[in-house]
Amino acid sequence: MIRRALAVLAFVLASTSATAATVSFNDPGQNQQWYLDALNFGDAWAQILALPTRGRIQVAVVDSGFDIGHTDLQDNLALWKRRNVVNGTRNVNPVNPHGTGTIGLIAATSGNGQGITQAAWGSKAIPIRVSNRSDGAAYTSDLADGIRYAADQGARVINISYGGVHLNTLQRAARYAQTKGAVVFMAAGNDGLNHSQWQNHKQLIAVGSTDRNGNVSSFSSRGKFVDLVAPGSSILSLTTNDRTRTWSGTSFASPIAASVASLMLTANPELSPWQVRQILALTAKDIGPAGRDIASGFGLIDAGAAVAAAITTTGRYTDDVAGRNITIVSNDLSSTSGLRLVNQIGAIPGPIEPAAIPEPGTILMLGSAAVAIFGRPTRRRGVAL
Length: 385
Fold this sequence. Notes:
Blueprint: H1 2-5, E1 8-12, E2 22-25, H2 34-38, H3 41-49, E3 53-56, E4 58-63, E5 83-84, H4 98-107, E6 124-129, H5 140-152, E7 157-160, H6 168-179, E8 183-187, E9 204-210, E10 228-231, E11 235-239, E12 243-248, H7 250-267, H8 273-283, H9 303-311, E13 327-330, E14 357-358, H10 368-374
Parallel strand pairs: 4-6, 4-7, 5-6, 7-8, 8-9, 9-10, 12-14
Antiparallel strand pairs: 1-2, 3-13, 11-12
Helix pairs in contact: 3-7, 3-9, 4-7, 5-6, 7-9, 8-9
């Protein structure tokens, strides 16, 4: 609810910020969400809160199912649009914890005094399940269907934390989503290898991983297909059974990057998908060799800088914003009920893994040859993202 979402812990002066302010919340896990400070999320939130109006964006999460009963996911899920594309039902319950981890970064409730803080502040998440397997693996065709369904439901941002960013099947689905106004993010991969043969698909933003020191994670896949990097090592998020957990993988770098895009569109819903992509590239911090490189792409995303650029950019989105399920809401904080100052709570409730634990295998990359020979392709497991 808006009352909870605006339960802001403090506005603190910060001379380096574009808005001279930053924002934090009373969620006990926030002090362990190092990636929020690393990408200047507090600055981005402050800029949005300073606007007289903003958009309310929907972010689709295409994954292995979700613990929709999680206490920290009660306010920010667009459950009326949930979908299981495998069997055509509304059953999006998790077959694997991975999806709860990815959607937690995008849709956790900020300012409710429990769990973690929502990176994609102010957005709603559409849960889309694409797997019926306990390991979370999904057919490429189901991933593509999930992307198309998300676009048809008006999602302006779509996250896919699966492998296959180089596959034409997913590129075609992402192209369709772009024509509907959506920006599509996808995990780069976790094998640490240089995939020089993988093409860079312009409609898919491939996100690699960085660690606490701002370096590209050793497991993050390399190649010309990589567009940007975001934190993906030791990422505190949610997991099933009302708990939190520390995760690692480009699976978690991707939704953090997607959250930045959602903030940009919250600040300026008129931005086109191409403008979002360009602003992210132009405002990213170059952390490798000068210019674009195979490990970090255009560089490390900066939420504060990206939102500042979004605010000052004249949007070129051609559709009617109101017709794309975007509600323009007021940010007049003086008249917003529930805004309050609260004290920081101590340790986060529930167990936290002592070390980053990669998620189980969640990729299924299916070639056209398998389709031609066997009809419905055989599932095979891949490395975790």
